[in-house]
Specification:
By secondary structure, the chain is α/β, with parallel strands linked by helices. The protein has one domain (5-241): 3-Layer(aba) Sandwich (Rossmann fold), CATH 3.40.50. The protein is 45% helix and 14% strand. This is 3-oxoacyl-ACP reductase.
Length: 251
């Protein structure tokens, strides 16, 4: 299947802020013809602002709310898309939550929450939307992981474990879907200037920056550019890869 990117329908989960919002806007910048589906859970006002910016770029936009821990809610989300005649060509599994603290202080509830949102949510969304991609013999599944899924991080054991799981999921599913013309890749950013960094004070952030060879955090738009590249028609030979834009922090 040979399609121009401005004919794509793109579903971005966790699109109300940060990397998700930047990804949505990067695709929307293609302009007329592009369909952007913005998923959110509760941030109604924030996602509407992202939708407004995407509309200004000429894209068609639909917002959908769902708790990605629930298969039932994801199925309802798909039903809404079906009513609008939309089947995602590109699925960006971006929704996720972080956790900072010693493993000895992690409760079972904390563990279940991190795994449900980051891993189960990715699994359920992918399982729901990939059949149509397989049928069309075309699709792009792009999972947003983290550098900590590659290296591990002290005091972020649970988050690192979840993102490591996303990386393994990506590699295995890429092999499964390759014969169907569907690529599966993960983007594993280093430190990005988003709300996820709000748990660190100014001194801690400065220390992190000093350890990054380029000397700064990434901005969400830089991560979005890589996600966009992986979705291009000419990126069809790239699959099963965990690509980490991290400023030389980890090589």
């Amino acid at each position: 299947m040979n399609r121009a990117i401005n004919e794509y329908t793109v579903l971005v989960t966790g699109a109300s802020r940060g990397i998700g919002a930047a990804v949505a806007e990067r695709f929307a910048s293609v302009g007329v013809g592009m369909n952007i589906i913005l998923h959110y859970r509760q941030a109604h006002e924030a996602v509407n602002e992202v939708a407004r910016r995407c509309l200004e770029k000429g894209a068609r936009v639909l917002t959908v709310s769902a708790d990605l821990r629930s298969k039932e809610q994801i199925e309802r989300m798909k039903e809404k898309l079906d009513l609008h005649g939309l089947q995602p060509d590109v699925l960006v599994n971006n929704a996720g939550i972080s956790h900072y603290g010693l493993l000895s202080d992690v409760s079972e509830t904390d563990w279940d929450e991190i795994m449900s949102v980051n891993v189960k949510g990715t699994f359920l969304c992918t399982q729901t939307f990939m059949p149509a991609m397989i049928e069309r013999k075309f699709g792009r599944i792009i999972n947003v992981s983290s550098i900590w899924g590659l290296t591990g991080a002290s005091c972020e054991v649970v988050y690192s474990t979840a993102k490591g799981g996303i990386n393994a999921f990506t590699k295995a599913l890429a092999k499964e879907l390759a014969p169907s013309g569907v690529t599966v890749n993960a983007v594993a950013p280093g430190a990005v200037d988003t709300e996820m960094m709000s748990g660190f004070n100014a001194e801690e952030k400065k220390a992190i920056e000093e350890g990054i060879p380029v000397g700064r955090f990434a901005v969400p738009e830089e991560i979005a550019s890589l996600v966009y590249f992986l979705a291009l028609p000419e990126s069809s030979y790239i699959t099963g890869q965990i690509i980490s834009p991290n400023g030389g922090w980890h090589t």
